[in-house]
Amino acid sequence: MSREFKREQRAPKKMGESNPTMLFLFCVLISFSLAPADADGSVPALFVFGDSIVDSGNNVFVLNSTAVADFPPYGVDFFAATGRFTNARILTDVLGQLLGLPDLIPCNLAPYAKGEKILHGLNYASAGSGILDNTTTG
């Protein structure tokens, strides 16, 4: 028993028809360009959302997490193994430095992430996170 699947033919887009993804990216870029900055033009804070690429150690503070990086060789070129899934700084550490933020952005689950330490941003990224329903089903 064979089935033939026919691919749906779509008409080519005409000039002037919108692409939802491009429209979204355009709106995001415009919002960044119109966002208010401090009087001196600097960025006051950086808030991070993502997965292991930008996780600064949140999973260290999650009970029973299997995705942790608080042991060597992680952090070998950093101060120590802090939970970052790299041997040195993560992209958001570098971005924060380029934006002129004073310190590394703390992870939101760290006990020290409170008070004045979070005035310049917070990192909510967690290794293994995802937006799809099947992310947690393995």
Protein architecture, described:
- The structure is a single chain.
- The model has no long low-confidence stretch (mean pLDDT 78).
- The protein has 2 helices and 2 strands.
- The longest helix has 15 residues, at 20-34.
- The chain has helices spanning 20-34, 91-98, and strands at residues 46-48, 121-123.
- Strands 1-2 form a two-stranded parallel ribbon.
- It is globular, with a radius of gyration of 21 Å.
- It has a domain at 53-131.
- With 138 residues, it is mainly α.
Task: Offer a concise description of the structure.
The protein has 2 helices and 2 strands. It has 138 residues and is mostly helical.
* Quaternary status: single chain
Number of strands: 2
> Which series of helices and strands comes N to C?
HEHE
Radius of gyration: 21 Å
- How large is the share of residues in beta strands? under 5%
**Mind summarizing the main beta sheet?**
2 strands, parallel
Summarize the amount of helix as a percent range: 10-25%
- Helical segment tally? 2
What spatial order of strands do you see in the largest sheet? 1-2
Mean pLDDT: 78
Q: What distance separates the N and C termini?
A: 33 Å
Shape: globular
Structural class: mainly alpha
Keywords: Hydrolase, Lipid degradation, Lipid metabolism, Secreted, Signal
GO molecular function, one term: hydrolase activity, acting on ester bonds
Organism: Nymphaea colorata (pocket water lily)
Protein name: SGNH hydrolase-type esterase domain-containing protein
